[in-house]
């Protein structure tokens, strides 16, 4: 017992020390802050991402995105593919989570758009001076890019305008970016289709080191009539050099949007963090892109990912015109409902009063008769007794109706009984007054007082009975 007391005293001494109390409070604040930080800290998420070939412009952008994603708890694993069509297949097949792809391509039902990144103009690079128009590709060797690429799909769609088909009208080549960059000029085809945002490292290499030039493709409006994903694009003058100029003037071409897509079951929070990077000026500056705006995000080619919808709505006001309209509609409904309830209550009240109105009218009528009798020279005792009996009958009938459930309002019953009590008290006072008058009359003959009083009372009762019979 002494040991326990000693320990308790030591604890008390510690609590009396301001330094120890302060240290304990700081420790508690530190633990609370750590727990709060752990609760609010977003866990690291790993996403498997493809941007097509490692030598393409999309892959350059993906590498910048990968660097910035680390700061927001996102780990992006870059996986090369043959092109956009192949990337879309792998996202749908769950071997990829996210992809940077060319817009306008068929996508599976589970594919959702996250954001557009940039316009990707079509580059048509040719070497022969005789090739001046798209139709001049007939009989030539033409690279449409590798199977599974979006470039090939868009090139075939474009060539259909001039009725050119591979193998029938020209010799098709399917060269990868690596082959385009490393093959000698003599082994390259006469024309090369290439879709990329600006500036394209592949196009720049072919223009500067392999003797190619750019051919205009003024077919955007015509193709947009058939494919809304195709837009008007421009490769600006001197975009790939001024000496020699590539091109010497703004070059019209067709273009599609580079899209970030994801599978529909990818975590919404991961998509939100990805969009914070995509919309930042840091990505635009490092990847040499124009920052995207809310208007571009609000016009998706594919169904938007739920995370993208939530990110777009992040700055929406709590009270919107739609909410105001809904509140106004609710207010109108509530007002109508209140009016309906008031009318219903009044109907119910009237129905409750329907059983009582007969009784109330009966008591009121008897009260008027009593008042009328009081004004006469002589009180009519038989009539007063008759009114008294009828008042009791009305009260009994009302109580029986309440007991049988015909009258369900206890408040109305109490009001009725209070009215009956008032009339009965008034009536009893008059009867008592008349009885005292009869007793005074009987006391005039002391020898026969009892007999006279009895006779007078019986006469009044007989008069009451005769009135009842009549």
Give me some keywords for this one:
alpha/beta, 470 residues, 54% helix, ten-stranded mixed sheet, rod-shaped, 3 domains, D-Maltodextrin-Binding Protein, domain 2
List the helices and strands and how they pair.
Elements lengths: L1 H14 L2 H23 L4 E6 L6 H14 L3 E5 L5 H9 L5 E5 L8 E16 L14 E3 L6 H12 L9 E3 L3 H6 L8 E5 L5 H9 L3 E2 L5 H5 L6 E5 L15 E13 L4 H11 L2 H6 L7 H4 L8 H7 L8 H55 L5 H23 L6 H33 L6 H21 L1
Parallel strand pairs: 1-2, 1-3, 5-6, 5-7
Antiparallel strand pairs: 3-10, 4-7, 4-8, 4-10, 9-10
**How many discrete domains?**
3
Shape: rod-shaped
User: Based on the structure, what is the oligomeric state of the protein chains?
Assistant: single chain
Number of helices: 16
Query: Which whole number gives the mean pLDDT?
Result: 82
Work out the radius of gyration. Answer: 50 Å
Could you state the CATH homologous superfamily of the largest domain?
Answer: Periplasmic binding protein-like II
H and E string: HHEHEHEEEHEHEHEHEEHHHHHHHH
| CATH fold field value of the largest domain | D-Maltodextrin-Binding Protein, domain 2
Top-tier CATH class of the largest domain: Alpha Beta
State the separation between the terminal residues, measured CA to CA.
103 Å
The CATH architecture of the largest domain can be named as 3-Layer(aba) Sandwich
Low-confidence parts, pLDDT < 50 over ≥5 residues? Answer: none
SS strand fraction: 5-15%
The level of helicity is 40-55%
> Biggest sheet, open or closed, and with what strands and sense?
10 strands, mixed
**How many strands?**
10
Strand-pairing-aware structural class:
alpha/beta
